[in-house]
Design goal:
DUF4440, NTF2-like_dom_sf, elongated
Length: 161
């Protein structure tokens, strides 16, 4: 048998084996979705209460936060320091939470409204990426949020001639 026929026969055999096997169902369960929605809701309550230790407990050790107009924050200790430096929360909501994903990766998104002490109200959107650890526990691995409001550009100073 020439080399081409031999490789063709091997390839055909492999395709036949792979073709008869189906991939396992990797869709998120309703329980997964409820757990992840609860993590997002609990995160809001922890931030409102300034319980940053409880807030960071939902993050993986290598988690990143990408806040608007600032550098990336990495790891629970840095996340807690970042949160502690924020002004108090007068009011906040995270409406329209949606969860999607498959297997051991999922993401949640929502809108937000946020009123911090001494600042105007902001509104925008957020994205949270989750990973399931061995044993089934979900942890947040990445969070990004940004405002829907236009950037406030200060008035130009007159140029002296």
């Amino acid at each position: 048998m020439n080399r081409f026929l031999r490789y063709s026969a091997i390839a055909l055999a492999l395709f036949s084996i792979v073709g008869c096997c189906s991939l396992p169902d990797t869709a998120l369960t309703e329980e997964d979705k409820a757990t992840l929605t609860s993590m997002i809701d609990d995160g809001l309550e922890h931030m409102r209460a300034r319980d940053f230790a409880a807030w960071t407990a939902n993050f993986a050790e290598d988690a990143v936060l990408m806040p608007p107009n600032g550098p990336t924050v990495t790891g629970p200790a840095a996340l807690q320091a970042w949160a502690e430096a924020m002004p108090g929360w007068e009011d906040a909501t995270w409406p329209n939470v949606m969860i999607s994903g498959e297997g051991n990766m999922a993401y949640g998104s929502s809108d937000y409204t946020l009123k911090l002490e001494g600042m105007p109200e902001d509104r925008g959107k957020q994205l949270v990426v989750f990973r399931r650890k061995e044993g089934g526990e979900w942890k947040a691995v990445a969070v990004s949020f940004n405002s829907d409001l236009p950037i406030q550009i200060p008035a130009m100073m007159p140029v002296e001639e």
